[in-house]
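User: what does the whole thing look like in 3D?
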Amino acid sequence: MKSDSVFQLQTLNLITKEQLESYTHEIVGILGVAGGNGIDQIDLHTTKKIYGFDINKEYLNTVQNRYSYMGQALELEQCDISESTFGLPRTDLLIANLIIEYVGQTEFVSLIDRNRNQIRVVSCTIQKNQEKGFVSQSNYTISL
Ligand SMILES: C[S@@+](CC[C@H](N)C(=O)[O-])C[C@H]1O[C@@H](n2cnc3c(N)ncnc32)[C@H](O)[C@@H]1O
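Assistant: Here's the predicted 3D structure for the full assembly of 144 residues, as structure tokens:
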């Protein structure tokens, strides 16, 4: 793995930790959960449910294997969050790190708006790195 990628994962892990510590929650949702980076920061004493959403089934399988000790607290769903049929369960804290680059701001805002009665806090991270460009190839780089 390239050192840039490792650094990015470590940074995202720390950001997720900060997000979890900043907002009280019993139910957490993670959009674009990928390989589950940051889930290790969740305190199972205070968090009753963790939802992970991703379009990529292989990533979700990795998350399932990696965090199998979380049992039924961890629920993973393969889905396309940009589809208008996608709905969120009740969530205290919704984390969306490096996913808006994939779905676009309009779709993302529309998703949040449609589900606003289900979510208490949304915390998101976008990446803008002028020198190295986006880590995730995105059609939305210019507007982000
Ligand atoms: C850069 S990764 C997210 C990084 C991760 N949140 C972290 O903290 O390490 C983007 C993820 O979004 C997922 N994704 C992209 N488009 C999606 C969509 N329309 N619906 C659901 N997941 C999507 C990809 O499969 C990928 O796992």
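In plain terms: The helical segments are 3-22, 57-66, 100-103, 105-114. The first strand starts at residue 27 and ends at 31.
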